[in-house]
Design a protein that fits this description.
Layout: E1 12-17, H1 23-34, E2 38-39, H2 45-49, H3 53-57, H4 60-68, H5 81-104, E3 107-110, H6 114-117, E4 124-130, H7 133-144, H8 148-170, E5 182-185, H9 191-206
Parallel strand pairs: 1-3, 1-4, 2-3, 4-5
Helix pairs in contact: 1-9, 4-5, 7-8
Length: about 210
């Protein structure tokens, strides 16, 4: 019955990208078009790129994530099973709270496993951005103003790390398309076309009174 339906809340768009597929550009433009907040990745490409223990020490949360993943990416070694399980629980709970607090006001959320955390939330559109590897590396290099070879190295590490984070902490692989409502190949569909499609979908689901 209509009276039994819960309010849908303000629209939310979750985005996940294969490295360099344009999430920053798409996300900020969608947020602007819908008048919603934009929330970027929890960890930047620079964070994930690494740079030795000193740099990792500056980001304690990422170091804890790496430790929970088994230390293969440069986290703390020698953690016992109980500590690792507690780390995983704390990381997931903290991230869940953050994502749900963002969703209360509506918005565009990049990464953060928001796609699974908000899987059952009404008025929410889940989007995956992908594209040809050469195009993604070139876009990332241009955006970050770094050489192509450095962007290529980032791509290999970042796509792997972000996928493994989600598998270890949430039991899903965000690089696969099955959890998304919309999948765009930004090698073929221009960024502005992707933005228009997402905005139109959000408006169609939300109704004119909410967007």
């Amino acid at each position: 019955m209509e009276a039994d339906r819960q309010p849908a809340g303000k629209p939310v768009v979750t985005l996940f990208e294969h490295y360099g597929a344009g999430a920053q550009a798409v996300g900020t433009k969608v947020a602007e078009a819908l008048g919603l907040p934009f929330h970027g990745q929890a960890f930047s490409s620079e964070d994930i790129e690494g740079g030795g223990p000193d740099r990792l020490a500056q980001n304690a949360t990422l170091a804890t994530v790496y430790a929970a993943m088994g230390g293969a990416y440069g986290g703390f070694d020698g953690r016992d099973v109980v500590a690792t399980q507690q780390d995983k629980y704390d990381l997931v709970m903290d991230n869940n709270r953050t994502v749900r607090s963002y969703a209360e006001s509506g918005g565009v959320i990049v990464g953060r496993n928001a796609t699974v955390i908000l899987a059952d939330r009404p008025n929410t559109v889940h989007v995956l951005l992908t594209g040809a590897l050469v195009d993604r590396v070139a876009r990332a290099a241009q955006q970050a103003e770094i050489p192509l070879d450095r962007a290529a190295a980032r791509q290999q590490r970042e796509d792997d790390v972000r996928g493994e984070m989600s598998k270890v902490l949430y039991g899903w692989d965000p690089r696969l398309p099955d959890r998304y409502d919309m999948v765009f190949n930004t090698s073929r569909v221009p960024i502005d076309g992707v933005v228009r499609a997402i905005v139109e979908t959000v408006r169609a689901l939300a109704g004119p009174a909410q967007v």
